[in-house]
């Protein structure tokens, strides 16, 4: 064992033909990797490309197109409603999404997570914040002001190792309940969206057939141990079925090939072009402040879920390749500011539609990160694939099988005994009454003090870990949510401005 620790990855690597199964080979690859932190990692010397890397790369590309487009559309609608001089639509939202996919893909997928720090997960999209974007815009916030604040707060949390500390203070019961709630509510949302789309085009049977085929295919992939193929296989199946049943008349290819405008001055330079908002002012920063605090507070449970997915699917002795929560926060923070500065509007977080299928496929971060970044650049340049990726039978199915069903399954796997089920049940109940972030903060405080779950847990924790940190997180989350009107809209910031 000591000899193996001294040998390099290249020396320990063995061809797949020497293993009894492909799974054994992938396990061995994870166990021998020794990624360098903020130093150059090279293919062949520190990691290898495998064909399994294509699956999370494809899944992440499909997922991020959908997410970025949804964020852009939400900002466009919210700002158009807030300001009389602003009229932004779907074409604008897709153009902004293309900006987000080009420069950040090169700098943070390929360079940062691929070559410089393979333990930092890719910086993707903050899905739970999407429903709030309309309220953020109506409150008078500015995408660039929000990005600057979010980046600063994220860097501070990363510098003081706050993210990993919060992950370590979350028990399996609390984490399991959080994943179960996120998985179930997310799955129901995607199912409802598919049915609403099919009824909207007066072809309700198409939605039911697409969902039925998705369930069968997902079950077959799980049975044969190929769940990591779920996103591309099910999304492509949904596309073919919908087209075969005649639903393709609402699928239009409008986005032209070419590069979007990458000049920051065009996007933020005046109130006559780009976002038509100009550079942010003091009032924009004030309006953005509580939302930035809330977004960063929501990072820890998001990151926790992705790291847990690796732990559940990777073999033993693979701690060196698990995502580092604090390094991921660093890249997310910098990516947030850079991506928005060049004209984007994404609210970033750990990239779930990449990490979840990558963990299921037993692949480390770097190979798939480089492939995903390359795919994003190609798709953003071509343009028209984005129109297909945001079509409901593709986008909703991809999110359903690639994110929410795996989250649900992972949460159920973590609930192993009565103590875990109690913490998980209360977490689910609290999330249903309030929201997942506040539920996580509350149940973490109760669980760490033995009021729910394992009564012996407080004996292993200091006063700082039992009361000060969980209590502080709960207060910060509660104040931020009250300020932005998440709990009682009539008292939020929108009512004051």
UniProtKB/TrEMBL annotation:
Which UniProt keywords are present, listed alphabetically? Membrane, Transmembrane, Transmembrane helix
Query: Which spans are transmembrane here?
Result: 54-76, 129-157, 169-191, 203-221, 228-249, 275-299, 365-384, 390-412, 424-446, 466-487
Q: What top-level branch of life does the organism fall under?
A: Bacteria
Which is a Pfam family this sequence falls into?
DUF3360
Name the UniProt record assigns to this protein = DUF3360 family protein
**Source organism of this protein record:** Ferrimonas marina
